[in-house]
Structures are given as structure tokens and as C-alpha cells.
Write a structure and sequence with these properties.
The chain is an all-alpha fold. The chain has one domain. It has three helices and no strands. The longest helix has 23 residues.
Length: 92
């Protein structure tokens, strides 16, 4: 039997937990990790031989998470000039 870390459903559960955590902490950080975990789960489910060792599996997860986080920040993040600033106090 395969070790627990190389089973696709463990990564799928982690992806769902991280996506739900994003609702509680909206910053695109947990969603990026969730997308990375979902990609690893999909690769393991399809049968791509990515799970040759723990370091390789974690490297795929880290790279996928970083790329997804950068894309989320690029397309869904706050743009310059989008934040409203005030020059005066409301009590003046």
C-alpha cells in the first residue's frame, strides 16, 4: 500500500480545507495553496508518476502553489489606485 502522502484523496481534502479557509481569510494565500494541492491530487489521481519521493511531491506542490498565487494576485488582486484614500478628517 502507498504511504498516506501519496494518496490523491489526502491532497483533495487538503485542497478543500484550504479553499474553505480562504473564505475566512480572504487574501488569496490559502487559495493558492489549495490550487497547488488540487493539482497534486489531480496528478496522483490520473497516475502521473510525480510521487516518486516526498521531496519531488512537495516541490511540485510548492511550484504549483506559487504560480497559482502569483496568477491570482495578478488577475484578482488590488490594482494601483483602487484603494480609496482620504486627505481630510471626518471631524473637520
Amino acid at each position: 500500500m502507498d504511504p498516506l502522502w501519496s494518496q490523491w484523496w489526502v491532497w483533495g481534502v487538503a485542497a478543500v480545507v484550504l479553499a474553505v479557509g480562504e473564505v475566512l481569510l480572504p487574501s488569496y494565500v490559502l487559495l493558492g495553496f489549495g490550487v497547488g494541492a488540487a493539482l497534486v491530487a489531480l496528478l496522483l489521481l490520473v497516475g502521473v508518476p510525480v510521487a516518486t519521493s516526498v521531496p519531488v511531491l512537495l516541490l511540485v506542490f510548492a511550484i504549483a502553489s506559487l504560480i497559482s498565487w502569483l496568477l491570482l494576485r495578478r488577475f484578482l488582486g488590488v490594482y494601483n489606485g483602487q484603494v480609496k484614500t482620504f486627505d481630510h478628517d471626518i471631524n473637520d
